[in-house]
């Protein structure tokens, strides 16, 4: 269980990797750089997926599915797009294998070379916009609001489970609009949807902002993002939403007849979050004992562990547990009764602590006599004895789960606040980055040259230009040139 789990303070990276494996979330696959998401990890992703899907549909989007393979010629139609993804593409060149003549196994059949190579999708803008050309003819066809749940492949050299893998799961929204303003409104709306999901469900406070030109999505005119702070003081990009302008519409000749009878290119957006959110969830909240899961995303919110000797005691506890479970389920609470006789209660306690189950209820014969249960909270590692006659157990548990959700968020919010520092000189910038980490709020002169130089010298990047940036005259923290406002720098995943 958590025994022997590395401490965050000693080796954060090792702690993270070990926790992902020991909590049964994921493991490395036989294919280098790819992962197997195990049932417990996938059940958390399913809860994320369900909530996001609901939010997308509430904002008018519908789901579709597009091909995994993209003709190479498609990718080259939008110049900055191909430049941005060229080094990460997996390419299919042949369509058949055959047995080697020497009997050594199968080989690629050289006679089965594709006329045009296929790219395993790194993202779907090109194949989707080639499709939209057939779907859009008139202003009556707009807006087109489509989302896709899929896998993508980006050939990564340095991988880490959930955070950066060669193949990962995500959703990608792709929308088409009749005006630039409508597309921009969509872009901002989806960034806000991501921020709402992160804060209300993941209990993860985020900064909303715009990316600099250097950090912008390849093929976009503007990229909006949400940035979160991890417990090691590094930032993590938790979601992006892109205003594509008319770039892909022009590349794939997607035009529409206007109300006035003219012919114009449509305006586009794309936006996505991925299984990287699993990494954010783990790194933002968990501790040296294991996972700490916000109740809204925990596969099991409550576990009941019986403490008994003999079948008679177990049977009596089971009857009471069934009553409690029925009441909790009426409240929409997911609950599990663990009556396995292969493990002792102490082992089970450690297992559920490691797996981040928000509430644990222990019941023994004495509890049945006294009409009590012991409730243990995962977020604070505290226990209390609750008398069942005090109030309905469903109300008590609902209240505690809400309290845990809020407490996890507040803890992360306070940590981010403590790790956000305003710096005003290059010396201070370097010192704070090295000794404290976190977000550095600093003036920047707005040039790519300065941005690149700071990245080269410190490995810190501009995470975002905050949406609530105040107009404030100042001097760039590196160049000393005039600046109109502060941006957030950080080292990042």
Task: Describe the model.
- By secondary structure, the chain is of the alpha+beta class.
- The protein has three domains: 12-70 and 125-285, BirA Bifunctional Protein, domain 2; 302-400, Anticodon-binding domain (Rossmann fold, 3-Layer(aba) Sandwich); 420-490, C-terminal domain of ProRS (Translation Initiation Factor IF3), CATH 3.30.110.30.
- Helix content is 35%, strand content 27%.
- The chain has an eleven-stranded mixed sheet, sandwiched between helices. Strands 18-17-19-20-21 form a five-stranded mixed sheet, sandwiched between helices.
- Strand 25 and strand 26 form a beta hairpin.
- Helix 2 packs across helix 6 (180-200) and helix 9 crosses helix 12.
- The radius of gyration is 26 Å and the shape is globular.
- It starts with 11 loop residues before the first helix and ends with a strand.
Question: Would you spell out the secondary-structure blueprint of this structure?
Answer:
Layout: H1 12-22, E1 26-28, E2 35-37, H2 39-58, E3 62-63, E4 69-71, H3 72-75, H4 79-85, E5 90-94, E6 97-99, E7 106-108, E8 113-120, H5 125-135, E9 144-153, E10 167-177, H6 180-200, E11 207-210, E12 222-229, E13 235-245, H7 247-251, E14 255-257, E15 263-265, E16 267-274, H8 276-285, E17 302-306, H9 310-330, E18 335-337, H10 345-354, E19 359-363, H11 365-370, E20 372-377, E21 383-387, H12 393-418, E22 420-422, H13 426-435, E23 439-443, H14 448-458, E24 461-466, E25 474-475, E26 482-483, E27 486-490
Parallel strand pairs: 3-9, 17-18, 17-19, 22-23
Antiparallel strand pairs: 1-2, 4-8, 5-8, 6-7, 9-10, 10-16, 11-12, 11-24, 12-13, 13-16, 14-15, 19-20, 20-21, 23-27, 24-27, 25-26
């Amino acid at each position: 269980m958590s025994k022997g789990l590395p401490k965050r303070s000693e080796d954060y990276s090792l702690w993270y990797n070990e926790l992902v494996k020991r909590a049964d979330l994921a493991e490395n696959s036989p294919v280098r750089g790819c992962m197997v998401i195990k049932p417990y990890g996938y059940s958390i992703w399913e809860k994320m997926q369900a909530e996001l899907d609901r939010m997308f549909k509430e904002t008018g989007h519908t789901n579709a599915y597009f091909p995994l393979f993209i003709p190479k010629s498609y990718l080259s139609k939008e110049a900055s797009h191909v430049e941005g993804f060229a080094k990460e593409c997996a390419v299919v060149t042949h369509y058949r294998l055959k047995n080697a003549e020497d009997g050594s196994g199968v080989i690629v059949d050289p006679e089965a070379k594709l006329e045009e190579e296929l790219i395993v999708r790194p993202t779907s803008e090109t194949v989707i916009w080639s499709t939209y050309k057939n779907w859009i003819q008139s202003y009556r066809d707009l807006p087109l609001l489509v989302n896709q749940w899929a896998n993508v492949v980006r050939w990564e050299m340095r991988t880490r489970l959930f955070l950066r893998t060669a193949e990962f799961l995500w959703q990608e929204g792709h929308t088409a609009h009749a005006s630039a303003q409508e597309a921009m409104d969509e872009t901002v709306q989806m960034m806000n949807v991501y921020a709402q999901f992160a804060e209300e469900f993941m209990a993860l406070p985020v900064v909303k902002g715009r990316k600099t030109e250097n950090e912008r999505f390849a093929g976009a005119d503007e990229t909006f993002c949400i940035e979160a702070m991890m417990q090691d003081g590094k930032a993590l990009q938790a979601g992006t939403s892109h205003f594509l302008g008319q770039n892909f519409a022009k590349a794939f000749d997607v035009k529409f007849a206007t109300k006035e009878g003219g012919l114009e290119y449509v305006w586009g957006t794309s936006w996505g979050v991925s299984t990287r959110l699993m990494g954010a969830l783990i790194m933002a909240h968990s501790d040296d004992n294991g996972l700490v899961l916000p109740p809204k995303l925990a596969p099991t919110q409550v576990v009941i562990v019986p403490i008994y000797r003999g079948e008679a005691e177990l049977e009596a506890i089971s009857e009471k547990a069934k009553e409690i479970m029925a009441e909790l389920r009426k409240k929409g609470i997911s609950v599990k009764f663990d009556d396995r006789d292969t493990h002792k209660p102490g082992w089970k306690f450690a297992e559920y602590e490691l797996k981040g189950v928000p509430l644990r209820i222990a019941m023994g014969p004495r509890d049945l006599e006294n009409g009590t249960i012991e409730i243990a909270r995962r977020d604070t590692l505290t226990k209390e004895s609750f008398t069942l006659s005090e109030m309905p157990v469903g109300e008590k548990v609902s209240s505690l789960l809400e309290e845990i959700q809020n407490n996890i968020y507040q803890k992360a919010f306070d940590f981010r606040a403590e790790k956000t520092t305003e710096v005003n000189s290059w010396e201070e910038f370097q010192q704070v980055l090295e000794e404290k980490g976190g977000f550095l709020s600093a003036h920047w002169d707005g040039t790519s040259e300065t941005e690149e130089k700071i990245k080269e010298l410190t490995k810190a990047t501009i995470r975002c230009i905050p949406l609530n940036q105040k107009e404030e005259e100042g001097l760039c923290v590196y160049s000393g040139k005039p600046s109109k406002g502060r941006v957030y720098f950080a080292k990042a995943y």
